[in-house]
Amino acid sequence: MTSEISRKKFLQVGGGAIAAGSLASFLAACGGGSSSSDGGGMLRFSNDKINWEEWFVETGRLAREAGAVGWRPTQYSDTTTYQAAIKTTGNTPKVPDMFSWWSGWLMKELVDTSMLADVSSIWEREGSAYSDGLKDAFTFDGKQYGVPLNVAYWPTFYNKRVFREQGLEVPTTWDDFIAVCERLKGAGITPLGATIEGRFPSFVYFQEFIVRTSPQLYRDLMEGRAKYTDPEIVDVLRLWGDLIRRGYFSDPASVSIGTGANNFPQYFKPGRIAMVTFGGWLEPTLMEAGMRPGEDFGAFVMPNIEADAGNNLIYETGPLCVAQNGQRRDDALEAAGWWASREGQSAWIDASGFASARADVPSANPVDQEIDRTIADGRFQLLNRYWEATPHEIVEVGVDQLAKFMLEPGDPKPILDAIQKQADTSWAAVEAGS
Amino acid sequence: MEAASVPTPRRAPGSAGAPAPRRSRSAGAIAFSATKVGVLVMAVAWIVPLALLAVTPMKSFEEYSSTSQWALPSDPLQLFDNMKQAWDSAGLGSAFFASLSYGLVGALVAILCGALGAYAITRLPLKGRFFWFLLVFSGTLFPFQMYLIPLFQLYTDTNLYDTWIGMAMFYSAIAVPFCLFVMRGFFSTIPPEIEDAAKLDGASSWGILWRVLMPLARGPIAVLILFQFTWIWNDFMFGLVLSTSDGVRPIMPALVGLQGASSTAGPPVVLAGALIGSLPTIALFLLLGRYLLSGLTLTATGKDE
Amino acid sequence: MPPPAGARRRALRRWTPYLYLLPMVLLVGVFLIYPAVKTVWVAFTDATGTSAGSFVGLDNFTRLVEDPAFRTSVRNTIYWVIGALVLQVGLGLLLALILSNMRAGDWLKRLFYLPATLSGAAVGVIWFYVFNPDQGLLTSFMGTIGLESLTTRWLADPPVNTFAMIFAATWQGLGPAMILFLVGLQNLPREPIEAARVDGARGLRLFWHVTLPLLRPMSAVVVAITLINNFKVFDLIWVMTQGGPYRSSETLAVSMYRESFVTFSVGYGASIAVVLTLIVTILSVFYLRSMFRKVEVY
């Protein structure tokens, strides 16, 4: 019966879309294809977050109601094309007024070619509500070039039902953590989800285990002061390889998390995999599969391997940038200011259900709220994730080599040698460039 | 000669007139049934992935996660829910109709340009026939990646970027070389005498092309529509690079977006999207497929120019 | 004075044929040939995503020779081309021979052709699920028939991942090869075959000594088209593995895209495109020659 109704509805919706779609292409054809014809003074806002469109539209509308200039989002379905589009148009008047980007080294490239407008005045006004770690990610030569579009922490998510059934508590020490893994393994449950699908996820446990050993080591490695071939890093890979061989991780070629086939929920929901360390943006995927945050899944920060490593958490943030050469730079700066304000962030968190970057705006769901509390109570130090924290040529080689290690966890040496080789080249180039 | 005067041979392709050896009874029935079994096995291997495309979207996420991929769906009507979800979530609606318009416009413009060119090359007094043919045909030789970056820059420099007309022009252009190839092949099979009557009536070259040659070319044109529409519809890379907006962006980049990094869709919805993206070309094939053999046969019967 | 008008008309008549060429040459010139030529230029520069770069001579090409990823890419491209020849051309010919004499042939032809109507992206998505090592169709099927020991991580272990994708490409590309061979078979002259049959030639012998040589022009076309298409395969690989893991399944086309659009070494990427084009062009000469010799094929 319900199917019958939904089928009818599908047909209606389909019919409507046919009319709307042909009208749209007809208009486009008549107008010579000018795609930015409507919007009545709305700013052009490009991004590659294809599933966030509704939320951007909604906040753009609210921005306009609030008196700031509103925006209309344009979504790119492919990240590489998106990067090419921004880089190629960045210094021309065709550049969108504002756009999403990546923090750290990927952002430096745009700053170096003067594509981004200075937004330091916004940070002066709103900065106190954000953590310093976040601000650093957008700071170059003492100035800020973006406001946080989104922020995601990288905790370890776990299936609460599995933990209940196995009589497990959230681990607080490394020994607890290993005991939890051992217990799960004994029960025929894969303790941790891991994947190489989509290329980038191979850095997840690499960065996690380094940070759990020594946050300073992580920072040094990211900034070229430590080498991949240093014994501390070799030890981390040995440990990781050992855990893989013990069967603590899922087959990285079968499971895909947050991208590609995105089949992780089919393992996580029924409890075939119990935990996963991943970015907070995995949550909507879990909820889409019918898991309720706080009831079916929760999150904790992975315990330290070296007890004295302190309270640290990996985060990821992307800036909202204003184009320096955009036709409406001042309007866009105003819009970015509203976005970073308390009002703007509340509207964004309401619309998206994501974690909040502002201390005075609560996150939308209980899992994120708990992470926020943990960070605040434990005075956590936030560290930018691998993807943005180190020059991108190193990242590209790094994720490929680490994927190789995940598939064949043997001798770490050739893996780390290969990454270091690229690191040497890249850091030499950075030296020469500055 | 005979072939050319019959515009659309309707007989089932391959059933008659095939010169390959007739079934030789003396060769033994065993060998024959062995090939039969082999072909059957292959046919099954070809059906199974197609079935995966058709059956998986009929499952709910719950069902997909808990049963084997080989299992049949318990509630096939789930298909419509999944298709609707795919349709809604990736902006497929407007992409679907944008691609439909590119496919039709691109194929028709390319066939027209190709036919004009082929006519000039095969029929009109022209210097450097072979050069012109090669020049245009070289367009299919380059790996398509070769065009990407300069094309992208050209488009951003000229305001063609992310416009309907820009996309339609590119798709027309990329379909031209093959159209020229086929139309040239076809026109050179038509004996010149056929035009004589029209020439006696004082028809211009334009009139001959439209009143004599094009009506004969129904088969090749059907094949070209099938091929070019399918190609344009299935294009992923150029749509990805040259367009972004709803209403301009074609369907394949929109579909792949379903699998993108911020996607929340599970396998049944992803495959439902793939199914939506495949239906038009499958339908076109079922509609025009019979021309495939006959249309090609006709253009292949010619000998020397 | 009539001469000017007559001269003008003559001039017009002389130029009319070129007017017919104009739309096609314009479209192809602007949208295909100009970008291709420009890419050749870019291959000799150090252009990046944000700068047009300057002329660097053959630097990009010498870098290619030393790049281990490029060597993997060349090797995989060779796998693709050989695999396509054996599977798509070989099976295509076999099927064409069998189906042209089968009663249910028409339906089977349609079936085998059907995947060719799907996009590379859709085919990639489908086979991605077929090859999933945990629950995929292939692994569970092999488990059922007791061949579990032969299963592997289809898309993660080189060179199996390349072979797996070649298989997926065969699923898609077999139909067109088969159709072209069917056309070739239909257009074979009858006399030599009848004559050979009168002489007592049958079965394999007839095929090998009479049918196959007669089929040669069409075979050349099928071989050339299959080669060119498989040199260019991109969508399928990009959707299934993105050339990974650790760049183990990249082909030249994928490497080119990756260098240009992922790492933004635009000049370097263009040099890969040039190498690829050179190879394809050399092979195409073979194609065009066979095409222009005697028979106007398809």
From TrEMBL, chain A:
Q: Give the domain of life.
A: Bacteria
InterPro entries to which the protein is assigned, alphabetical:
Bact_solute-bd_prot1, SBP
What start and end residues bound the annotated signal peptide?
none
Q: What is this protein called?
A: ABC-type glycerol-3-phosphate transport system substrate-binding protein
From TrEMBL, chain B:
Q: Which residues lie within the region annotated Disordered?
A: 1-23
Q: Which GO terms describe its cellular component?
A: plasma membrane
- Per UniProt, the ranges with Low complexity bias are 9-23
| Chain ranges passing through the membrane | 29-55, 95-118, 130-152, 164-187, 208-233, 269-293
**Pfam families hit by this protein:** BPD_transp_1
Per the record, the major location class is membrane
Q: Which family does the record assign?
A: Belongs to the binding-protein-dependent transport system permease family.
- Protein's UniProt name: Multiple sugar transport system permease protein
The root-end lineage is: Bacteria, Bacillati, Actinomycetota, Thermoleophilia, Solirubrobacterales
Q: Name one GO biological process term.
A: transmembrane transport
Give compartment(s). Cell membrane
- Which residue intervals define the domain ABC transmembrane type-1 in the entry? 96-288
**Keyword vocabulary terms for this entry:** Cell membrane, Membrane, Sugar transport, Transmembrane, Transmembrane helix, Transport
Q: How does it sit in the membrane?
A: Multi-pass membrane protein
